[in-house]
Design goal:
Blueprint (H helix, E strand, L loop, with lengths): L8 E3 L4 E4 L3 E5 L6 E3 L6 E3 L2 E7 L3 E9 L7 E9 L2 E10 L2 E10 L1 E2 L2 E3 L7 E9 L2 E7 L7 E6 L6 E8 L7 E11 L10
Length: 194
């Protein structure tokens, strides 16, 4: 089902945001981020997130477009239970390149990056969550969906799902989100990348 972005509820609404039925355009505020403790020792819950309620057993997809050029520029999808249990996945700029990135947080954050394709100024991210298992995939064309991560994630009655963007080192990243859908969890085999 296509999601009307106007139904979303903001956590840390950016100063500059344009929300329509089928599109979200934001420009990030300064020093925004989501992270909990691991390695760096700090906790941040200041990133931008527009959440839509979803029950367990869903697949969410969104198109992300932006120019990610500064250390830790990031945008994609977030699944959130509360401030200590959440996942953010999408693009993140690090070590001079844009990678596809996932941070899984259950009390403390972890971080993984991969690069199944190099062009990440315009891509799709897909998250499937069912019965405590989360499958994260990305695509350039919505036909081929390489696996980024298979992770454990807590079962909850309700989740918030939606677009997220952060710029820990600056402000001013412009991101366009569109083609946002949430539907029943896909039952495709893990190795079916369609």
């Amino acid at each position: 089902m296509t999601i009307d972005f106007r139904r979303g509820r903001w956590l840390n609404e950016p100063v500059n945001a344009e929300v329509t039925e089928d599109s979200l355009r934001i420009t990030t505020d300064a020093k925004t981020d989501f992270w909990r403790e691991t390695y760096y020792g700090f906790t941040r819950d200041t990133g931008h997130f527009l959440g839509i309620p979803a029950a367990d057993g869903f697949t969410a997809e969104i198109r992300v477009q932006g120019e990610f050029r500064t250390l830790y520029d990031q945008a994609g999808l977030m699944v959130r239970i509360d401030e200590t249990r959440w996942v953010k996945t999408g693009v993140e700029f690090t070590d001079g390149e844009a990678f596809l990135s996932t941070v899984v947080t259950d009390g403390r954050s972890d971080w993984s990056v991969s690069q199944p394709f190099k062009q990440v100024d315009d891509f799709y991210i897909r998250v499937t969550l069912s019965k405590g298992a989360m499958r994260i995939q990305a695509s350039r064309d919505r036909s081929f969906w390489p696996l980024l991560r298979l992770a454990s994630f807590p079962v909850a009655e309700t989740y918030e799902v939606g677009p997220t963007a952060c710029t820990p080192e600056r402000s001013g990243l412009s991101v366009h989100f569109s083609e946002f859908t949430i539907g029943p969890a896909t039952t495709k085999d893990l190795h079916d990348l369609s």
